[in-house]
Each structure stands twice: as C-alpha cells, then as structure tokens.
Design goal:
By secondary structure, this protein is α/β, with parallel strands linked by helices. Helix content is 35%, strand content 17%. The relative contact order is 0.17. The structure holds pyridoxal-5'-phosphate (PLP).
Length: 378
C-alpha cells in the first residue's frame, strides 16, 4: 500500500524536536517559526508534557466516555480558570474541524434552524458543515455543498444584518483573526455588532479560536480584545501541543441532554494529560506574556525592513506582507537558512506561528536570514 497523495511535501524528514527547534534525519537543526500549522504552543517535547504523557500512558491511555474521567473535569476547571471562561461548559473532541462541526450542530439543535453565516476567506476545517462554512470551493465536495451557507465580507455589518433578519440562520462562525485567510482582523465595533445581531435574531455567535486561541495572541482568546461573549468557542491546535485534541466551550444558557453530542476518542485520558500539561506550562512559564513581549520585538524589527509592506496579526500569530509572492523566499528560508515559516491564501504573506516559548535570540536568527535572502534576491 502507498499513501494517498494529497500533500505536497518539503524534502525534510524530522526525527526529533526540542522547544523551538526541529532536527532532521541528517542532523540539521531547523528553527520552527510555524509550529506545524500553529500547533506547538509550549514548545516541542516540553519536559512536563513528556513526563505527564509517559506516566499517563503507563497507567491508562484510553477508556470510552461511558465512565467517570476526573481528568476531563480537571481540564474543564483549569481551562476555565486560565481562559477566564469559568462559566462555560466543555465538550471534548479530537480536532479543529470536529470542534467546529459540533459547534455548528449544537447551534442548529439549539435554534432549530439550519443556515450558517460565515465570512469570505474563512477556514474552519474539512468536515461536512465546517468545510461548507470555509470559503474555498476547491475543498468543498458536492456532498458538503448541500449545507446552506451565506458568505459575507469581513466587516460588512449591513450584509450580516440583511441575512440574520430573515431569522433562518442558526450560527455566525467567525475567526476574529483569520489564519489560513491571511491574518485579517476587523474592528471591535464590527464583531460586537455581529454579536448583537445574533442575539437579536436568534443565531449563535461561534468564535473559531482553533488557531488564534490558547494564548497565541497574548490573550487566551483573540476575541477577548473585542470584549465579546461568544455562545460557543472552538479550540484545538495549541490545546494539545501536537496531541490530537479539540473542544468547544459552551455558554451555560445552551442546555445539554444525553446523547446530543458524542465521540469515541474525544477527551480520552492521554489527550487530557497532554491538554492539562499545556495549561500548566502556559501558566507557569507565563507564555501569554512572552507571546506579547516577543511580538512587540518582532514587529519592531519587521518594520525596519523596507521590503515588508505590512505587518499583520497579533501576538505570535503574525504575517509579513511583501509586494511579491513569497513562495520562493519561503523555500530559501527553509533550504538555505533552515527556518520554517508558513504560507496563506495571500500569496504575498509569510506567516509566523512559532511556539509561545520563543525568545528574542530566535527572532534575531530569523531576521538575519530574511535580510540576507532579500539582499540576495535583488
Ligand atoms: C481557524 C481554524 N479552524 C479550524 C481548523 C481545522 O482544524 P483541524 O485541521 O484540526 O481540523 C483550522 C486549521 O487550520 C483553523 O485554522
């Protein structure tokens, strides 16, 4: 059997990793400014994470959701405290798409409606309604396209109002900072306006924090800067630092009932152990503050480079916009300078999503490489 060939691959084979570095099979050290799609939050192979997961798997790796699992209770408690969302309830699953799928399904159960409102350039994952709410027709199969989704431009409040007024929409799903789309963010006034319209016309406000959550922006959640109270918050990626886990935080006015949602693997013992370790390290090592501090340093250095036309994003969810496509630059950064960065829907944007443990000295390495490469390409 061979692999189903859906991923264009770089010719690099990582075999180990430590904090912000990845090492390949030839012993080459790479600086990871991409965190494997914004997944690595507390750094690769963090000792607390490794120890806790090792200990847990040697005791009990998995049992189904039909027994008591105190680790889930502890995860809900600790996540509530660190995020400031103590009053919410937690449902655990395995990925970002699954989190959004459950969020949309729950919104539909709760409101009895079936239309979704999403934003242009959005990315919410590849399961059925999550991909239907993703603004990329290339990854929407005819089966997924049966969902009724309206797309409006991020920032167009009157378009949101015109659709919600019809009272057929169960949920508005929004990435407060678009990730795959290219780091666009709108005003607090806009997001608050959307939330108000949701409340007025009986739709739920879903904050997709799969990429922007878990401290990446310097706040626990990106929406917090806009003083929003979402009905549902979806999380994944940084939540498990590479261990597959996702979840939705559900406002207490949405009621649970037995069987409403469910999963075999979601919230298993090993996943909880990974997620608890992440929260412990974020708090102990003050990684949200580090995200803010390093971001400030990064932005300062980026604005000194004339080829950088715009610095986008917040915290350690950043993008450098050039006036040329960055694909070749990105390749050179990896192959010549051994620095991983990311791409987005915007071909001119270099995405920076490092582990939240990153230090100024690593940022210096990146800018040295970038400056050299920009000079070489002149
Ligand atoms: C904002 C956002 N939502 C959802 C997803 C889907 O997450 P997953 O790939 O874990 O299904 C992603 C993945 O990139 C994302 O960036």
């Amino acid at each position: 059997m061979k692999l189903f060939n859906v991923y264009p691959l770089f010719d690099i084979t990582p075999v180990s990793a430590k904090d912000v570095h990845v090492y390949d099979d030839k012993g080459i050290e790479y600086l990871d400014l991409y965190g494997g799609h914004a997944v690595i939050s507390i750094g690769h192979s963090h000792p607390t994470y490794v120890k806790n997961i090792n200990e847990q798997v040697s005791k009990l790796g998995f049992y189904s959701n039909s027994i008591q699992n105190p680790l889930q209770e502890l995860l809900a408690k600790n996540l509530g405290v660190l995020s400031g969302c103590e009053t919410y309830d937690l449902f655990l699953c395995n990925s970002g798409a699954e989190a959004n799928e459950n969020a949309l399904k729950l919104a539909s159960f709760h409101t009895g409606k079936k239309k979704i409102l999403a934003f242009q350039n959005s990315f919410h994952g590849r399961t059925s309604s999550a991909v239907a709410a993703t603004d990329n027709s290339k990854i929407v199969a005819p089966l997924n396209a049966q969902h009724q989704v309206d797309f409006v431009a991020l920032g167009d409040l009157s378009a949101v109002a015109a659709i919600l007024k019809q009272e057929e929409t169960c949920a508005v799903i929004v990435e407060c900072i678009q990730g795959v789309g290219g780091l666009d963010e709108n005003s607090s006034e806009f997001y608050q306006g959307v939330a108000k319209l949701c409340a007025q016309y009986g739709a739920l406000f879903i904050a997709d924090e799969v990429q922007s959550g878990y401290g990446r922006t310097g706040d626990f959640f990106a929406f917090q800067k806009h003083h929003l109270v979402p009905d549902i918050i979806s999380v994944a990626k940084g939540m498990g630092n590479g261990f597959p886990i996702g979840g939705i935080l559900i406002h207490p006015r949405i009621e649970a009932s037995y069987g409403l949602l469910g999963t075999t693997f979601g919230g298993n013992h090993l996943a909880c152990s990974a997620a608890l370790s992440v929260l412990e390290v974020i708090e102990k090592e003050k990684l949200m503050k580090n995200a803010s501090d390093i971001s400030e340093y990064f932005v300062k250095r980026a604005t000194q480079i004339s080829e950088v036309k715009k610095v986008k994003g917040r915290g350690l969810m950043l993008g450098l916009e050039f006036d040329f496509p960055v694909a070749a630059l990105r390749k050179q950064l990896i192959n010549t300078h051994h620095v991983f960065t990311g791409s987005s829907n915007n071909p001119n944007l270099l995405r920076i999503l490092p582990p939240l443990t990153i230090q100024k000295k690593h940022i210096d390495v990146f800018f040295e490489a970038l400056t050299k490469e920009l000079k070489n390409s002149l």
